[in-house]
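1,3-beta-glucan synthase, Smittium mucronatum. Tokens?
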Amino acid sequence: MSNQDHNRDPYTGRMYGDEEESYIHDYEDNDPYGVMGYEEYGGQESFDASYYDNANDNYAEPAYYQSDVHDRSQYDSNPSGRRRRGNKRGGMDSDVESMSDGAFSIRSSLVRTPASHTSAADIDIFGEYRTKGNNSGRYANYAPSTDSLMNLIENKKTYRPTGSVTSFSQSASWVSNNDRSGMDFAQAELILNDSPYPSWSDPNQIPLSKEEIEDIFKDLTNKLGFQKDSMKNVYDMMMIMLDSRASRMSPLMALLTLHSDYIGGDHANYRRWYFSAQLDHDTPAVRQAANNKATGEEQVDAVDEVDNLSSFVENWRSNMNSLSQYDRARQIALYLLIWGEAGNIRFTGELVAFLFKIAEDYYKSPACQQKVEPEREGYYLECIITPIYNFLRDEGYQLINGKYFKRDQDHDTTIGYDDLNETFWTPEGLRQLVFDDKSSLMDLPPEDRYHMMKDVNYKKSIRKTYKEKRSMGHLITNFSRIWILHVVVYWYYIVFVADFLYDNQFELRSSSNPSSVVKSVPVLLPDIAPRRFSLLAAGGGIAPFIAIVGAIFELGYVRFNKNNFRILMNRIMVLLIFLLVDVVPIFFCWNKGEDPTFSYVQSDENKFVWTATKLTGDDLAAVSSQYNTFRIAKIVAIIQFIFSIFVTVYLSIAAPGYSFQRQGKKRSSQGLVNRTFTANFPPLSRSSRATSFSLWFMIFMCKYIESYFFLARSFKDPFKWLYQYTSINCNEKFIGSKLCSHQNYITLGLMLLLDLLLFFLDTYLWYVIWNTVFSVGRSFYMGISIWTPWRNIFSRLPKRIYTKILATADMEVKYKPKVLCSQIWNAIIISMYREHLLSIEHVQKLLYQQVPSDENGRRTLKPPTFFVAQDDASFDQEFYPPHSEAERRISFFAQSLSTVLPEPIPVENMPTFTVLTPHYGEKILLSLREIIRESDRYSRVTVLEYLKALQPDEWDNFVKDTKILAEESAGLDNNSTSRAFEEKGDTKVKADDLPFYSVGFKSASPEFTLRTRIWASLRSQTLYRTISGFMNYAKAIKLLYRVENPEMVLLFGGNGSAKLERELERMANRKFRFVVAMQRFMKFTKEEHEATDFLLRTYPSLQIAYLDEEQSPDGTSSKIYSCLVDGRSEILEDGSRRPHYRIQLPGNPILGDGKSDNQNHASVFVRGEYVQMIDANQDNYLEECLKIRNVLGEFEEYNPPTVSPYSPASEPQGPPVAIVGAREYIFSESVGVLGDVAAGKEATFGTLTQRMMAEIGGRLHYGHPDFINFVFMTTRGGFSKAQKGLHLNEDIYAGMNAFSRGGRIKHTEYIQCGKGRDLGFCSTLNFITKIGTGMGEQMLSREYYWLGCFLPLDRFLTFYYAHPGFHVNNLMIMATVQIFMLSVMFVATMNITLNICPHVDMNDPNYYKSILAQNCFMLQPVSGWINRTTLAILVVLLIAFLPLFLQMLTEQGFVRAVTRLGKQFMSLSPIYEVQVTQVYAYSISSNLSFGGARYIGTGRGFATSRLTFATLYSRFSEASIYLGARLMMILTFITLTMWQWPLIYFWLSIAALIISPFIYNPHQFVRTDFILDYRDWLRWLCAGNTTQESNSWISHCRLSRIRVTGYKRKRLGERTPSTGYVPRAKKSVIVFSEIFMPIISAVIVIVAYIFTCSRWGVPLYTGDTTTSSDGSVTYPTVDSDPVPDNQSSIFTAFVISLIPVAINAGMTFFFFAFAFFLGPLMSSCLPGFGKAMATTCHLLSVLIQIVVYYLSCIVEGWDTSRAFLCMIVTVFVQRAFFSILLSLLLTREFGEDETNIAWWTGRWYDKGMGAWVPTLILREWLCKIIESSIFVCDFLVGHAIFFFLSVFTLIPWIDKWHSTMIFWLRPSRQIRPPIYSLKQRKQRSKVSLGYGILLGFAFVIFVALVTVPYVKPITDSISVPETIVKLLRLNN
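Tokens:
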């Protein structure tokens, strides 16, 4: 192949390095601004225009397609259909210059927005709609109709926006005005093409030339010792920012505003820091605050003068205003130099500000100015930055044997970036900077501090400022208001409803009860007010108690100093007073609160039945004094209740951080936090605040009403009958009846706890509902719903393109809008065609085309019928494939333009921005091998085959395009192109085309194979897809620049000229940069380097930032550099590229989890004012990129100030916009059910949720695809945070940081980017695990403390329920399920142990008398409670589907919403949701206990591979399978003893926890593979005992306990564990989760078992009654039989539980002894000796457990329900016992599995253990005891799963149906089965037959073991000596 072919892009057919865009290339012969006045698409040779009849300008109406009366054309007759060359214009009646009466008739000079020209005729078309005052940042209150905008333009209403400057610089725009009709071509070429910074090139306007600014940088570099490359880099950064700003304002104002943003403005972080650390005053939010008087005195610069806050502000402003332009540029340059070389220190914004201050002090000193010799290069890095970096690195890592390893310490003892940064917030913190001799840096003269920084002892100077202790206490401290709002209100409800607690006449008090009225005279009842109000008021004491607990925990988190201790102790004392006032009166009110005017007589039959009789006469007079006391008690109780309400309301509303503190003018550093940097929240507008209040009012109003009736009031009857139940005879040998007699209260306690959890969950349910309702309502308001009245989005689309996409307000329109719109629309359609989304036939119907006109043979422009066809049912045409990507993109584009968009400004005036993408190991470009071969032996399909099945239409378009290219390359004549459109009926053609339709090419030449690779890569989650998508920004900028500047096209020689192309490329590069941070670039494989090189050749302007490591000559040390290359970099001899910049770093920048560090090192190469954060699995589209100017307008910086920001006349500025978010479309939603569910969650969060969060001030930063205010964020710590582990979810911390420092965060609905999501079961749950563990780390963070303790209530609630509340909700859901099972288990034990009352009519007001007389247990109301609770839990789980349904309903219609949800339910997505909820809960709870949060590479490839059973079991056993198995055992017991229909739901839900990993495993039910899975699982159970194997059951066990024990540190430097290092969990942290909770669970089930045994042998009451002759009912005597008192169920429970453990202990020791003495000899003869030993021992453990189960059956007299409960006790007791052993006795693990292998083989002598052997033997013995029981669990549970799943393998065609469910592929497109050779098939059949028989045999044994207890002849034949039974029951 020729060199020319090598330089050709095989996908586009273009030459590499050719920068012309696709739409220019295809039509380079057509000048869009020539004599025709429009762009001709391919001429009539390419498209058949005969379909179109006539044209009309007013194509918004259907009548447009009928006639053309106003259109005039100047086209000359041209039979060839090609335009004439040249730039000469025609007459005045041309389309280009003529006026018409159409909808787009415009001939005026429009105002440039925001800075206008001086023409009196200038107008602002948005003037009537411009928002007055502060608003959300949009430029119109509502979306005006396009017609009204046009009328406004036509009427030429003059409007001059306030704050506009006189004009832009002359080089800033091509738009003509009254004073200037154009530019001289030579001058334009000189100014625009030769200057790198065009807007900073006019010597008459710029305050400093770029040469002078460069001299400033050189001088600073020489004086302070910066690196030359760093200086060049930040010089370019500053100049581009100045150029960007100067393009829309004067250069002087550009310099002023940039200096204001960096150094001296109201919102400059340096100014805030200076006031906080130097003057130590809060910074006023707006300039009016400067007039407030301050009471304190300050001494400034050692001058004894008293200044108030106003003086400080005015002095600062005066100093800033007096600076020369040179000084302003120098200060900006110095700050950028300091920041640009700071490396990881860039994460500490205030430390950077401090370094700037000391550098500035030194630079201005005489010593610096008089210095002759320049400072050595690198001095700043070596002496200032590196010591700080080394301190931070050593805090997290330690050096062992020449390698750095993570320290074995948690966050609370590790000083991180935030601790270091907060040291510089206050003068007290600055004084901590000391040297080795303990002298302070701040005691030195300011000019000496710069050089003395290298001697600061940071180890002594820096301390923890906030302790991120791993504790559940953070949930109480940070979210105390949530607990108060729920627990206290629930107390009020329950106490009010449970009136029987304090009213013994409660049954008579009901007005509906006939017993309360006797002969029409109401019965007098006692006054219960004192006791009721006092008991209610006691709930008010819960609020201060919760606050006290939170404050106590807070003492352990905040920095312990005198000030913080005083504040918190004051708060605790006040809260303690509140608590005492709330609680103490209850003793008086309860004792004196019984109405003395009544006499009370207790029933002899039941202690809860009383008779109250009103006193009269002398009896009443005798109690007058008591009555007075009673009245006092009543008053006290009412006051106590009112006070409790006040306390509850106050503590619910008031932010805890501000509680009980003086809110005077106190300096910020004297509070718990420095509010300047932590609680400076941006205010909400009035409308947003009203929306916020309305939302939360509706949520809590509905929640409190519904919860009262559904949870509290409905719980009254179960509460009453459990509380009033009088227990009957029961006994236990050791504890008697003390426990069993209170079984009803224990059950009641569990049910109350469950009811309280549901009370919490109710709130989240109503939050989801109302947030969705408000969000949908806002979508109607914004006009983005298809149900809005202005739905005709397509017919109005051309007008909206003109008014909202094009900067028409800044154009002198000499061209018809139709001409301009056609350029935009055609480019969009052509881009879709080139992406193979549209066929050539579809393109013909969608493009603007030229058609003959009625006059003189001229041609006119014809719009496509598409615009009216979409809103007119009479059109029956297909414009794109139904439900295709093209339809989605066009529909969203049209719909988005119906919303409010900020006004665009001309391209040359728009800000410069950068797209930043971090890359680690993501796939760059798929190789041919990857797409045409299966990924592994478990995969049944290639990537290409799967993509072809998912996108058949796009593949057909690609094949047709490829065939045409192949025929052209083969040199065929033009007629041969018709073959591309031939029918497939021709056999020869089909045979020839088979290679094309199979793999996409017929010739294996690189250009064709590369096309197929690119096609597949663009439909997978690859970096190439991301880059190609976001490089559309460059295409969009070029397109807009051409369309809006026709004069420019003429000036540069017309379309297709080299000068024009250079100008377009120059503008694109000037306004847009794309930086990819490739962290591993220098460690790429050959394939990755080739893919990267292809990217750089395809996109020469793409920039890659990477790390380069340079080893020292002796190899003992290295230097790391941050480098930047692009496609234009010089290629060196070794093939590498010479970097433009190579900046040395202080060390390895990857100190955290990677992504944030990667972003940080690349941030110095970002250019412009804004940066878009993009991940490496995203996509973008041309039509969305066209809106970039609108999005950047959301930052509200298009209107430049008219005066200096430092001038007294300057207007106050509102809080700046820090982040602008955008929507995401999850393009992986069509890849099966899991991809769709994941996509649905992302879509609803990115639209419904964020829409409301942004409106009410709760949105944060979520990474992609947010736009970032570069100056705001980089001066405050960067785009993310980077402490390892703590900042795992790095993006959200940047949002919290910006929000806490006063930055506004907005969200846009009119632009969206593509986003890939995880597709497989494991990958989606890996992502969920990462999010869950990251949330656990967030709970510990100081940011959550700030937001939770200092936000006002409504914004706190928004933050809580949108972020941590979701995860706490998942925790509570799973806790609810577990507590529900335990509660029902207790009810079931009562059902089989107590006398159950017969069913009664509870509507009968006297039913309770008969129940109390029977002394039986009233189960009926409890059963009703079970039904209601089941419904509540079901609703809570299903509510997750509501947002997606409403989102689809509003944006895509009812049919698609129902279809999508129906497909998800048919695919069993609720089962998946149960698993997701559990994984979320498990992740966050395990992280709060053990830590270990780390980045998990989820792997976003297509999940078509079948995973083995062992892989899935080991992955999810800890997370869900073990929990599901325990709950399944409890549920089985409940089913055996108390069956109810609602239990079916729990059978499904709990089964989902166990089987969902296998249900969503591709091809799980292929019979042969299923049986081979069984074989592999058995091997997995036995592997790893002779040689070390990572994929084995023993390795799985080790990994499970390593999170508790950790690894041995001494061996770490010698051998790194294959699993990575894991630290030992702190005992104080895990005591709750690993010791306390297992013990509590075991105690609960033991209590249940004890109760069932407490009445052993006592017959149950049948409920028979006798009726006497007088009609009275006589109930039989209950409990006439004695209760045994000589047996102990406690002893039985522990013995049955620990017998297997004891036997296993002896058995494992025996095997150890055997292996120790004979193992070395046997191992030499039998290679599998260790495996055989372990397998034998473990199988014996299984047998022992089975024997123990039958022993329990015998002990329980073959009562299977009680025997099963005994097994439940065994499981829970063993779990608690092993948790205690594991947590308290086991030492650390070795890095590898040496001790396990030595135990079974006896080879201890060659493992390198030395003197540790004796202790290791004891340790390993404990491990083997634990492992034996775990093996029994895994063996039995695994077999049970196999037995259940095997049933599905018997269903015919199960794999097809299963694949349809998972992949959503029709059976006709099913993935083919794998092809095996004959030998392989025979071998598979043989193996499957053998192991199938073994599985069947195991199933028979399992069924036999289960059914034996129910076969009476067998049970009667089994006898055990009575002595053993008595011994087990301790029956003497």
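The radius of gyration is 39 Å.
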